[in-house]
Amino acid sequence: MRLAEVFTRIVGDDPPVGFTAFDGSSAGPQAGAPVLDVRDKTALNYLVSARRFELGLARAYVTGAVDVMGDLYEALKSLWTLKYDMSKMEMLKIFNSMGGVRLLRRPALPEREAKVSGRKHSKKRDAEAIAHHYDVGNDFYELVLGDSMTYTCALYDRPTATLERAQFGKYDLVARKLGLRPGMRLLDIGCGWGGMVTHAARHYGANVIGVTLSKEQAEWGQKAIKAQGLGHLAEVRYLDYRDVNETEFDAISSIGLTEHVGTENLKEYFASLYGKLRAGGRLLNHCITKPDGFGPAITRGGFISRYVFPDGSLAGPGTLMSRMHDSGFEVRHSENLREHYALTLRDWVGNLERSWGKAVELAGEQTARAWRLYLVGSRLGFEHNGIQLHQMLGVKLRDGVHSDMSLRPQW
What we know:
Blueprint: H1 3-11, E1 18-21, E2 26-27, E3 35-38, H2 42-49, H3 53-63, E4 66-69, H4 72-80, H5 88-99, H6 123-134, H7 138-145, H8 163-178, E5 185-189, H9 195-204, E6 207-212, H10 215-227, E7 234-238, E8 249-255, H11 266-276, E9 277-289, H12 303-308, H13 317-326, E10 330-336, H14 338-354, H15 356-363, H16 365-383, E11 388-395
Parallel strand pairs: 1-3, 5-6, 5-8, 6-7, 8-9
Antiparallel strand pairs: 1-2, 3-4, 9-11, 10-11
């Protein structure tokens, strides 16, 4: 059986994308549609040897054994909602008839597979996991993230807004929700390259400490603070948020950190932040969430956990709100920015595609391909409500009663 026939048996006789393979077979529409190209026999080895089909396909793509001719987003979007009518067992039987035991030999793993060790969510292991994802190289991130150098969901006032305008809008929304004013003390945990740190210092006159577990981010952030003349107000430390000794902060922002904490540690996480705030202080927690409370959103041993976010986990919004309440916070506001993250990812992918040659030069082809697949897949996840993005604003009540907040939101 030739591979094009296997493809149509899996996805149906009228596939939405084209298909070509190393055995000379082809299928699907020819004019204008993206084409899935199986370039090498090792693609079958990856598919058969992986415990999960999506992991095998991802490995084949990252190594170049499988490629997409045309727009990767349009290709995956076309395949996203298809109902596959072939079981893994049937697929294995077909592949067995094509290659037998030889297909069970696992080829070399892609370069970017994560290797972390020790107790899960210990400080040492968390540092390793963060370094795997964020220490790809600041030059590479500058290509993808653009001038804002911000690796979290932006806030778009219209779909055509620039990425930089949208990232400014996100930081300003966080600042307004926290009620920042000149002289207030802000702790920004998981601060990345210091975008919120510099925004709060420059535009609100706040005194800001940012902390990150990425050494490269901390060095970049400190240079940015110095270049902007904000050293008297702001600093970025290479430090675990759990090791911040200062307390009595007026506000805490956590933008994209909670995904790395572990759902089993959420109560301790929020309790730690509660203890660092003064009475009447506010916490703005901004993180990716599951759309419900059932099952994991990041599959253990899948592509995301192996190549993108080692030990990453997502909680549902109800779980997050409950853990905040259980830790003493009163949650005053919550909103879902799911569509905004899809737009953010659209713009990141656009940056990557426009600078593809430079990205490969800086990070290597396999890393660049892994990032392209991850960003495009994540965009589709937000568009199809497989994942969401929630901002939750909590307050540490004064005397256990007074929130010191206005009757209606001021942002």
